[in-house]
Amino acid sequence: MAAYGLYTHIASNKFRSMVLLGGLFLLIYVLVYAGALLAEVFLHGDRSVDFYLRAAGHDLAAAFPWATIAAAAWIVIAYFFHQSMIDAVTGGHAVTRQEEPRLYNLLENLCISRGIPMPKLKLMDSPALNAFASGLNPRQYSVTVTTGLLKALNDQEMEAVLGHELTHIRNGDVQLMVVAVIIAGAVGFFGELFFRMFTNLSWNSSGSGWSSSSSSSSSDSSSSDRDSKSSGGGAVIVVIIAIVLIVLAWLLSQVVKLALSRSREYLADAGSVELTKNPDAMITALRKIEGRGELPGATSAVMELCVDNPREGFADLFATHPSVQSRIDKLVAFAGGRDPGPLPPPEPASEEPVPEQDAAASDQPPPLPHKGPWDDAAAPVPVPGQGPWGPHR
User: Is 0.70 surpassed by the pTM of this model?
Assistant: First the structure.
Protein backbone atom coordinates (compact mmCIF):
# COMPACT_ATOMS: atom_id res chain seq x y z
CA MET A 1 0.00 0.00 0.00
CA ALA A 2 1.59 3.25 -1.15
CA ALA A 3 1.73 6.13 1.33
CA TYR A 4 2.18 9.80 0.46
CA GLY A 5 1.16 11.72 3.59
CA LEU A 6 0.86 11.36 7.33
CA TYR A 7 -2.62 9.83 7.34
CA THR A 8 -1.95 7.46 4.44
CA HIS A 9 1.23 6.39 6.23
CA ILE A 10 -0.88 5.65 9.31
CA ALA A 11 -3.39 3.62 7.28
CA SER A 12 -0.61 1.74 5.47
CA ASN A 13 1.12 1.01 8.73
CA LYS A 14 -2.10 -0.34 10.24
CA PHE A 15 -2.54 -2.69 7.28
CA ARG A 16 1.02 -4.02 7.53
CA SER A 17 0.67 -4.33 11.29
CA MET A 18 -2.48 -6.45 11.01
CA VAL A 19 -0.71 -8.74 8.53
CA LEU A 20 2.26 -9.08 10.89
CA LEU A 21 -0.08 -9.66 13.82
CA GLY A 22 -1.82 -12.45 11.92
CA GLY A 23 1.55 -14.04 11.17
CA LEU A 24 2.45 -13.72 14.83
CA PHE A 25 -0.72 -15.59 15.78
CA LEU A 26 0.15 -18.39 13.32
CA LEU A 27 3.41 -18.95 15.18
CA ILE A 28 1.37 -20.48 18.01
CA TYR A 29 0.36 -23.31 15.64
CA VAL A 30 3.97 -23.75 14.56
CA LEU A 31 4.82 -24.32 18.21
CA VAL A 32 1.94 -26.77 18.56
CA TYR A 33 3.27 -28.71 15.57
CA ALA A 34 6.77 -28.75 17.08
CA GLY A 35 5.32 -29.99 20.35
CA ALA A 36 3.44 -32.73 18.46
CA LEU A 37 6.71 -33.83 16.86
CA LEU A 38 8.35 -34.14 20.28
CA ALA A 39 5.33 -36.03 21.62
CA GLU A 40 5.38 -38.51 18.75
CA VAL A 41 9.09 -39.12 19.26
CA PHE A 42 8.44 -39.72 22.95
CA LEU A 43 5.61 -42.17 22.21
CA HIS A 44 7.17 -43.93 19.22
CA GLY A 45 10.93 -43.99 19.28
CA ASP A 46 11.53 -46.40 16.41
CA ARG A 47 9.78 -44.87 13.39
CA SER A 48 10.82 -43.04 10.24
CA VAL A 49 10.89 -39.28 9.68
CA ASP A 50 7.90 -39.48 7.34
CA PHE A 51 5.85 -41.23 10.00
CA TYR A 52 6.62 -38.56 12.59
CA LEU A 53 5.78 -35.71 10.22
CA ARG A 54 2.45 -37.25 9.21
CA ALA A 55 1.54 -38.15 12.77
CA ALA A 56 2.36 -34.64 13.99
CA GLY A 57 0.17 -33.23 11.22
CA HIS A 58 -2.78 -35.30 12.45
CA ASP A 59 -2.04 -34.18 16.02
CA LEU A 60 -2.04 -30.54 14.92
CA ALA A 61 -5.44 -30.94 13.24
CA ALA A 62 -6.83 -32.50 16.39
CA ALA A 63 -5.25 -29.86 18.68
CA PHE A 64 -6.13 -26.89 16.44
CA PRO A 65 -9.41 -25.93 18.19
CA TRP A 66 -7.89 -26.44 21.65
CA ALA A 67 -4.86 -24.32 20.76
CA THR A 68 -7.17 -21.60 19.44
CA ILE A 69 -9.27 -21.67 22.62
CA ALA A 70 -6.14 -21.51 24.79
CA ALA A 71 -4.74 -18.55 22.83
CA ALA A 72 -8.10 -16.76 22.97
CA ALA A 73 -8.33 -17.35 26.73
CA TRP A 74 -4.82 -15.96 27.13
CA ILE A 75 -5.83 -12.80 25.24
CA VAL A 76 -9.07 -12.42 27.25
CA ILE A 77 -7.23 -12.68 30.55
CA ALA A 78 -4.68 -10.10 29.43
CA TYR A 79 -7.50 -7.89 28.09
CA PHE A 80 -9.00 -7.50 31.53
CA PHE A 81 -5.93 -7.65 33.73
CA HIS A 82 -3.00 -6.30 31.72
CA GLN A 83 -3.35 -2.77 33.13
CA SER A 84 -3.33 -4.08 36.68
CA MET A 85 -0.20 -6.09 35.92
CA ILE A 86 1.52 -3.05 34.39
CA ASP A 87 0.66 -0.90 37.42
CA ALA A 88 1.91 -3.63 39.74
CA VAL A 89 5.25 -3.73 37.92
CA THR A 90 5.74 0.03 37.56
CA GLY A 91 3.99 1.31 40.67
CA GLY A 92 1.96 3.83 38.66
CA HIS A 93 -1.06 5.40 40.34
CA ALA A 94 -3.82 7.63 39.02
CA VAL A 95 -3.64 11.35 39.79
CA THR A 96 -6.29 14.07 39.69
CA ARG A 97 -6.22 17.70 38.67
CA GLN A 98 -5.86 18.74 42.30
CA GLU A 99 -2.79 16.52 42.77
CA GLU A 100 -0.98 17.42 39.52
CA PRO A 101 -2.63 20.50 38.03
CA ARG A 102 0.19 21.29 35.61
CA LEU A 103 0.36 17.82 34.07
CA TYR A 104 -3.41 17.32 34.08
CA ASN A 105 -4.08 20.64 32.34
CA LEU A 106 -1.50 19.98 29.63
CA LEU A 107 -3.06 16.61 28.80
CA GLU A 108 -6.60 17.94 28.98
CA ASN A 109 -5.83 20.85 26.64
CA LEU A 110 -4.41 18.48 24.03
CA CYS A 111 -7.46 16.24 24.25
CA ILE A 112 -9.88 19.16 23.96
CA SER A 113 -8.03 20.61 20.95
CA ARG A 114 -8.54 17.40 18.96
CA GLY A 115 -11.75 16.08 20.50
CA ILE A 116 -9.98 13.08 22.04
CA PRO A 117 -11.48 11.39 25.11
CA MET A 118 -9.38 12.11 28.17
CA PRO A 119 -7.33 9.04 29.16
CA LYS A 120 -6.45 8.32 32.76
CA LEU A 121 -3.37 10.17 33.94
CA LYS A 122 -0.93 8.17 36.05
CA LEU A 123 2.29 9.09 37.81
CA MET A 124 5.16 6.75 38.53
CA ASP A 125 7.65 7.61 41.25
CA SER A 126 10.96 7.15 39.43
CA PRO A 127 13.94 9.40 38.59
CA ALA A 128 13.98 7.95 35.07
CA LEU A 129 12.83 10.17 32.19
CA ASN A 130 10.12 8.21 30.43
CA ALA A 131 6.40 7.87 29.73
CA PHE A 132 4.11 5.34 28.09
CA ALA A 133 0.49 4.77 27.09
CA SER A 134 -1.48 1.58 27.65
CA GLY A 135 -5.00 0.19 27.39
CA LEU A 136 -7.14 -1.83 25.00
CA ASN A 137 -10.34 0.25 24.99
CA PRO A 138 -11.39 3.83 25.82
CA ARG A 139 -12.21 2.86 29.42
CA GLN A 140 -8.70 1.47 29.92
CA TYR A 141 -6.61 4.08 28.09
CA SER A 142 -4.03 5.70 30.35
CA VAL A 143 -0.86 7.78 30.06
CA THR A 144 1.81 7.17 32.68
CA VAL A 145 4.58 9.71 33.34
CA THR A 146 7.55 9.39 35.67
CA THR A 147 8.23 12.02 38.30
CA GLY A 148 11.71 12.45 36.87
CA LEU A 149 10.30 13.41 33.48
CA LEU A 150 7.84 15.83 35.06
CA LYS A 151 10.69 17.65 36.80
CA ALA A 152 13.12 17.63 33.85
CA LEU A 153 10.87 18.95 31.05
CA ASN A 154 9.31 22.36 30.67
CA ASP A 155 5.66 22.79 29.68
CA GLN A 156 6.27 22.74 25.91
CA GLU A 157 8.45 19.63 26.08
CA MET A 158 6.02 17.90 28.42
CA GLU A 159 3.18 18.73 26.04
CA ALA A 160 5.16 17.19 23.17
CA VAL A 161 5.66 13.93 25.07
CA LEU A 162 1.98 13.78 26.00
CA GLY A 163 1.13 14.39 22.34
CA HIS A 164 3.39 11.48 21.41
CA GLU A 165 1.49 9.16 23.75
CA LEU A 166 -1.91 10.45 22.64
CA THR A 167 -0.92 9.71 19.05
CA HIS A 168 -0.20 6.11 20.02
CA ILE A 169 -3.76 5.95 21.36
CA ARG A 170 -5.31 7.72 18.36
CA ASN A 171 -3.52 5.48 15.83
CA GLY A 172 -4.43 2.26 17.63
CA ASP A 173 -0.80 1.50 18.38
CA VAL A 174 -1.49 0.75 22.02
CA GLN A 175 -3.98 -2.03 21.27
CA LEU A 176 -1.77 -3.64 18.64
CA MET A 177 1.32 -3.50 20.83
CA VAL A 178 -0.45 -4.96 23.84
CA VAL A 179 -1.91 -7.79 21.73
CA ALA A 180 1.51 -8.37 20.13
CA VAL A 181 3.14 -8.57 23.55
CA ILE A 182 0.43 -11.00 24.69
CA ILE A 183 0.84 -13.30 21.68
CA ALA A 184 4.63 -13.12 21.83
CA GLY A 185 4.35 -13.99 25.51
CA ALA A 186 2.22 -17.02 24.61
CA VAL A 187 4.79 -18.13 22.04
CA GLY A 188 7.56 -17.72 24.60
CA PHE A 189 5.54 -19.62 27.22
CA PHE A 190 4.85 -22.62 24.98
CA GLY A 191 8.40 -22.56 23.64
CA GLU A 192 9.80 -22.75 27.15
CA LEU A 193 7.30 -25.50 28.01
CA PHE A 194 8.46 -27.63 25.07
CA PHE A 195 12.12 -27.01 25.88
CA ARG A 196 11.54 -28.14 29.47
CA MET A 197 9.79 -31.24 28.20
CA PHE A 198 12.67 -31.95 25.85
CA THR A 199 15.30 -31.53 28.57
CA ASN A 200 13.43 -34.06 30.72
CA LEU A 201 13.90 -36.69 28.02
CA SER A 202 16.97 -38.77 27.37
CA TRP A 203 17.92 -40.86 24.38
CA ASN A 204 18.51 -44.52 25.18
CA SER A 205 21.93 -45.61 24.02
CA SER A 206 20.47 -48.89 22.82
CA GLY A 207 18.47 -47.01 20.20
CA SER A 208 15.07 -47.81 21.66
CA GLY A 209 14.04 -44.16 21.60
CA TRP A 210 13.34 -41.27 24.00
CA SER A 211 12.24 -41.84 27.56
CA SER A 212 11.84 -39.91 30.77
CA SER A 213 15.16 -39.26 32.45
CA SER A 214 13.72 -40.48 35.76
CA SER A 215 12.67 -43.83 34.35
CA SER A 216 15.39 -44.50 31.79
CA SER A 217 17.51 -46.45 34.27
CA SER A 218 14.63 -48.84 35.06
CA SER A 219 13.58 -49.59 31.48
CA ASP A 220 12.95 -53.19 30.65
CA SER A 221 16.02 -54.87 29.12
CA SER A 222 13.93 -57.19 26.99
CA SER A 223 12.20 -54.23 25.35
CA SER A 224 15.59 -52.69 24.62
CA ASP A 225 16.79 -55.92 23.04
CA ARG A 226 13.65 -56.14 20.93
CA ASP A 227 13.95 -52.56 19.57
CA SER A 228 17.73 -52.46 19.29
CA LYS A 229 17.52 -53.58 15.67
CA SER A 230 15.01 -50.85 14.85
CA SER A 231 16.08 -47.64 13.18
CA GLY A 232 16.15 -44.72 15.63
CA GLY A 233 17.86 -42.17 13.38
CA GLY A 234 14.54 -40.72 12.26
CA ALA A 235 13.72 -39.69 15.81
CA VAL A 236 16.94 -37.72 16.13
CA ILE A 237 16.23 -35.85 12.88
CA VAL A 238 12.68 -35.05 13.96
CA VAL A 239 13.85 -33.77 17.34
CA ILE A 240 16.30 -31.47 15.57
CA ILE A 241 13.47 -30.25 13.30
CA ALA A 242 11.26 -29.58 16.33
CA ILE A 243 14.00 -27.62 18.11
CA VAL A 244 14.62 -25.53 14.99
CA LEU A 245 10.89 -24.77 14.68
CA ILE A 246 10.68 -23.71 18.33
CA VAL A 247 13.73 -21.44 18.07
CA LEU A 248 12.53 -19.91 14.80
CA ALA A 249 9.03 -19.31 16.19
CA TRP A 250 10.44 -17.54 19.22
CA LEU A 251 12.86 -15.44 17.17
CA LEU A 252 10.19 -14.47 14.64
CA SER A 253 7.76 -13.54 17.41
CA GLN A 254 10.33 -11.19 18.91
CA VAL A 255 11.31 -9.68 15.57
CA VAL A 256 7.66 -9.09 14.55
CA LYS A 257 6.80 -7.61 17.94
CA LEU A 258 9.77 -5.26 17.87
CA ALA A 259 9.21 -4.32 14.23
CA LEU A 260 5.68 -3.26 15.14
CA SER A 261 7.08 -1.03 17.86
CA ARG A 262 9.85 0.55 15.76
CA SER A 263 7.57 1.37 12.83
CA ARG A 264 5.20 3.35 15.06
CA GLU A 265 7.62 5.62 16.87
CA TYR A 266 8.24 7.82 13.84
CA LEU A 267 4.50 8.28 13.29
CA ALA A 268 3.96 9.05 16.99
CA ASP A 269 6.65 11.76 16.82
CA ALA A 270 5.00 13.20 13.71
CA GLY A 271 1.58 13.07 15.40
CA SER A 272 2.96 14.96 18.38
CA VAL A 273 4.21 17.72 16.09
CA GLU A 274 0.80 17.83 14.42
CA LEU A 275 -0.90 18.24 17.80
CA THR A 276 1.47 20.81 19.30
CA LYS A 277 2.79 22.55 16.15
CA ASN A 278 6.18 22.60 17.88
CA PRO A 279 8.82 20.23 16.44
CA ASP A 280 11.59 21.86 18.49
CA ALA A 281 9.87 20.88 21.74
CA MET A 282 9.71 17.23 20.65
CA ILE A 283 13.38 17.30 19.67
CA THR A 284 14.60 18.82 22.92
CA ALA A 285 12.40 16.41 24.89
CA LEU A 286 14.00 13.47 23.07
CA ARG A 287 17.46 14.89 23.76
CA LYS A 288 16.71 15.17 27.47
CA ILE A 289 15.22 11.66 27.59
CA GLU A 290 18.05 10.11 25.56
CA GLY A 291 19.89 7.52 27.64
CA ARG A 292 17.97 8.42 30.82
CA GLY A 293 14.79 6.35 30.40
CA GLU A 294 15.74 3.05 32.05
CA LEU A 295 13.02 1.93 34.47
CA PRO A 296 14.64 -0.34 37.08
CA GLY A 297 12.61 -3.49 37.61
CA ALA A 298 10.39 -2.94 34.57
CA THR A 299 9.89 -5.89 32.24
CA SER A 300 10.83 -5.72 28.57
CA ALA A 301 7.12 -5.63 27.69
CA VAL A 302 6.70 -2.38 29.63
CA MET A 303 9.88 -0.83 28.18
CA GLU A 304 8.58 -1.52 24.67
CA LEU A 305 5.64 0.81 25.36
CA CYS A 306 7.80 3.74 26.53
CA VAL A 307 8.82 6.87 24.66
CA ASP A 308 12.39 5.60 24.58
CA ASN A 309 13.85 2.21 25.41
CA PRO A 310 17.58 2.42 26.20
CA ARG A 311 17.89 -1.37 26.20
CA GLU A 312 19.67 -2.11 22.93
CA GLY A 313 19.39 -5.36 21.01
CA PHE A 314 21.97 -7.34 19.11
CA ALA A 315 22.95 -5.44 15.92
CA ASP A 316 19.75 -3.39 16.38
CA LEU A 317 17.72 -6.47 15.40
CA PHE A 318 16.04 -6.66 18.80
CA ALA A 319 15.93 -2.92 19.48
CA THR A 320 12.37 -1.95 20.24
CA HIS A 321 12.80 1.71 19.24
CA PRO A 322 14.72 3.49 16.51
CA SER A 323 17.65 5.49 17.80
CA VAL A 324 16.95 8.95 19.16
CA GLN A 325 19.27 10.41 16.54
CA SER A 326 17.31 8.84 13.66
CA ARG A 327 14.02 10.09 15.12
CA ILE A 328 15.41 13.60 15.46
CA ASP A 329 16.79 13.48 11.91
CA LYS A 330 13.25 12.72 10.68
CA LEU A 331 11.83 15.65 12.64
CA VAL A 332 14.49 17.97 11.26
CA ALA A 333 14.04 16.79 7.68
CA PHE A 334 10.24 16.64 7.51
CA ALA A 335 8.99 18.94 10.30
CA GLY A 336 11.57 21.72 10.10
CA GLY A 337 12.81 21.25 13.65
CA ARG A 338 16.20 22.35 15.00
CA ASP A 339 18.49 19.91 16.74
CA PRO A 340 20.54 21.33 19.64
CA GLY A 341 22.72 18.22 19.63
CA PRO A 342 23.29 15.69 22.41
CA LEU A 343 22.91 17.21 25.85
CA PRO A 344 25.55 16.68 28.55
CA PRO A 345 24.58 14.40 31.44
CA PRO A 346 23.10 16.25 34.41
CA GLU A 347 25.57 17.24 37.09
CA PRO A 348 25.12 15.39 40.38
CA ALA A 349 23.63 17.53 43.12
CA SER A 350 26.11 18.65 45.74
CA GLU A 351 25.38 17.18 49.15
CA GLU A 352 27.97 19.14 51.12
CA PRO A 353 26.39 20.65 54.27
CA VAL A 354 26.22 24.40 54.46
CA PRO A 355 28.26 25.78 57.41
CA GLU A 356 26.07 27.05 60.20
CA GLN A 357 27.62 30.49 60.28
CA ASP A 358 27.24 30.87 56.51
CA ALA A 359 23.64 29.72 56.72
CA ALA A 360 22.94 32.22 59.47
CA ALA A 361 24.63 34.97 57.51
CA SER A 362 22.56 34.15 54.44
CA ASP A 363 19.39 34.86 56.42
CA GLN A 364 20.56 38.37 57.37
CA PRO A 365 20.00 41.36 55.10
CA PRO A 366 23.10 42.74 53.36
CA PRO A 367 24.99 45.36 55.44
CA LEU A 368 24.54 49.02 54.61
CA PRO A 369 27.50 50.89 53.10
CA HIS A 370 29.73 52.75 55.56
CA LYS A 371 29.66 55.99 53.58
CA GLY A 372 26.76 57.52 51.74
CA PRO A 373 26.19 60.61 49.65
CA TRP A 374 25.23 62.61 52.79
CA ASP A 375 28.10 61.40 55.01
CA ASP A 376 30.79 63.80 56.16
CA ALA A 377 33.28 62.42 53.68
CA ALA A 378 30.95 63.16 50.80
CA ALA A 379 29.68 66.54 52.09
CA PRO A 380 30.78 69.65 50.10
CA VAL A 381 33.55 71.70 51.56
CA PRO A 382 32.11 74.98 52.96
CA VAL A 383 33.22 78.21 51.23
CA PRO A 384 33.59 81.37 53.30
CA GLY A 385 30.74 83.81 52.77
CA GLN A 386 28.40 81.13 51.32
CA GLY A 387 25.66 79.04 52.83
CA PRO A 388 24.54 75.65 51.80
CA TRP A 389 22.28 77.09 49.08
CA GLY A 390 24.62 79.78 47.67
CA PRO A 391 26.22 83.07 48.69
CA HIS A 392 24.72 85.15 51.47
CA ARG A 393 22.66 88.03 50.30
Answer: no
